[in-house]
Amino acid sequence: MSPVTHFLAGWLLAAPMRISGREKVFIVAAAVIPDVDGLGIIPELLTRNSAHPLLWFSQYHHSLHTLVFALVVTLLCWCMAEQRWKTAFLVMLSFHFHLLCDVLGSRGPDGDSWPIPYLSPISDSLALSWHGQWALNGWQNILITALMLSATFWIAYRYGSSPLELASARANRRFVHVLRSRFGNRYG
After folding, report:
1. Residue 121, preceding bond cis, omega within 30 degrees?
2. pLDDT by residue (tens digit) across 101-116?
């Protein structure tokens, strides 16, 4: 699934929780951070016609989609959280929801499925995959993203909370104000 979908999934998990804004950031970041290895696409594209292309995306994408990385991310967030155990649980859940989404819907454009090397680097014995994995740009992912986006807008309209609050309370208030002005201001 796309980084936008992962972001929205993390936000929807964090939004209803009674935790600090910082802890919500941790949960949303955990939903996206496994794809940081996808940044390897930039040097790969820049060097693809060179004598020594860097195949960082082709070789390393999904290399951080592992239990070990999930534990590292969770431990770091646990150390920085106020509600440590609650936040750690939600971070681990958010990270693993990312993995589940990728197993379901991240088949590449060439038809290749992208297995998740879950126990790497400790063992290569467990690669998570599903034979029915739909394409990254498949209608299923588009529908899921649209539903998550709709839920995000509804939460913002109804409860005054949007992903913008992760960066700016003022931007969140303005966004909610615009939504409520456009669709009626029944909630304040």
Report:
1. yes
2. 999 988 877 777 888 8
What pLDDT sits at residue 55? 85
Evaluate whether 81 touches 27 at the Cβ level (below 8 Å). no
Residue 116, helix vs strand vs coil: strand
Sketch the domain layout of the chain as residue ranges.
3-134
Q: How many CB atoms lie within 10 A of CB 41?
A: 13
pLDDT tens, residue by residue, 26-82:
999 999 999 998 888 888 899 999 998 888 887 777 789 999 999 999 999 999 999
Place of tokens 């197993």: 103
Would you call 121 exposed, middle or buried from its count of C-beta atoms within 10 A (0-12, 13-18, 19+)? exposed
Cα 14 from Cα 24, distance rounded (Å): 5
Axis-axis angle for helices 21-32, 67-80 (nearest 10): 170
**Cβ(74)–Cβ(89) below 8 Å:** no
